[in-house]
Amino acid sequence: MSGIFQRISMIFRAKTDKALDKLEDPRQTLDYSYQRQLELLQKVRRGVADVATSRKRIELQANQLNTQADKLTNQAQKALEVGREDLAREALTRRSGIHQQLSDLQVQHAQLQAEEEKLTRASQRLQAKVDAFRTKKETIKATYSAAEAQTRINEAFSGISEEMGDVGLAIQRAEDKTAQMQARAGAIDELLASGALDDPTGTAKDDITLELEQLASTSDVENELARMKASLGAGPSAAAQAIEGQQPPAEAQQPPPQAAQQPSLDAQSPPEYQAPPSQGQEAPPAQPQGDLR
Amino acid sequence: MIVRILNEGQWHLTDDAVRGLNSFDDAVEQAVTTGDQDQLTRALHTLLDRIRTTGTRLPDEELEDSDLILPAADSTLEDVRQLLSESEEGLIPG
């Protein structure tokens, strides 16, 4: 068997020779090499931790996106309830964008998990090899006579340096993968921060929420108004008249929520306003509000 | 003969088993030369599966030099090319 694989096998041979040339006394080489092995083992463990951190971060983001998707579903429902199909459509469009992100994250999550498993196995293997090397190193040192030891050192050395090379490659690979994912995770964080993807903690409100809240609060204003009119004895007919005279206002013309503090008879009616109950005694059922997030 | 599969460990193969692998080696080499990722993945998968089934796994605590080193099953063309270029310089830690 020649060709490609023979060439790849050369990698580790060259390493071993280099390491063996480094020091005069082979026993020193052994100790030096053992130190390097422990360092590498440390590095592998750090690598495993890094990958695990990235994986957890992706899980966290997936959770956030899930919350976000649920929230948008609720919003779409609410928007439909108040007859705003356009808002509902917008919410659902955004949700499908989020689903796209989610499936991307799932792929990444699976990749990271695979890398993590590989590194864990590599670390266990390296640990076993390092232990074996330590035992061998001590026997070689104990029975040291230059000529005899040299062959055994060479054997032990090429065995372990090959393993280190292999594990070294595995870490490098995992580091590359993780760096990629971290860049991506950073991008998603940025999107969340900029509001392009909504912050599920709800500290900032997106425009759909704002508009729905506005709708809810204007209808509350109207309900309150109707109730007041009724109790003032203005009568439902007057209120109905006032309402019939109104055209459904464009979104921009809707009174802001603050208007609730100073209702006036001139206040514009929201489109979803219903005629007050003919009895005029009870306030109409309050519209849901404030909990849309 | 001892064969290492990168990222997996070492396998011990009989000479007969090794002889049966030659054709797969050619397939991999060809995939690398033509730059065909699909073919490379397929060739590596068949090759490595064959090694895993015909060989016996070497215990982790054994320090043995491999006679052959094979790329991991999910290696990309880039990975394999890099391995080949590194083999001329030898830059792996250790």
Q: Are there runs of chain A of 5+ residues with pLDDT below 50, and where?
A: 248-273, 278-286, 288-293
Mean pLDDT of chain B equals: 81
Low-confidence segments of chain B, ≥5 residues, pLDDT <50? 89-94
Please state the structural category of chain A.
mainly alpha
Span of the ends, CA to CA of chain A? 66 Å
> What level of helicity do the residues of chain B show?
40-55%
- The whole-angstrom Rg of chain A is 35 Å
Please give the oligomerization state of what you see: heterodimer
Helix content of chain A: over 70%
Strand content of chain A: under 5%
The strands making up the biggest β-sheet of chain B line up spatially as 3-2-1-4
Order of helices and strands of chain B: EEHHHEEH
Mean pLDDT across all residues of chain A, rounded?
A: 73
Task: Give the overall form of chain B.
Answer: globular
Broad structural category of chain B: alpha+beta
* Secondary structure tally, helices of chain A: 6
Q: Give the biggest beta sheet of chain B.
A: 4 strands, mixed
Largest sheet of chain A: none
Query: Count of DSSP E strands of chain A?
Result: 0
How many angstroms does the end-to-end distance of chain B come to?
23 Å
Globally, the shape of chain A reads rod-shaped
